[in-house]
Amino acid sequence: MLDKLTKETFEPLKSQCFQLTLDDREPLPLELAAVLGNGLQGAASREQFSLHFRGPHLPALPQRIYRLEHGQLGALDIFLVPIARDASGMTYEAVFT
Question: Are 13 and 6 in contact (CB under 8 A)?
Answer without folding.
Answer: no
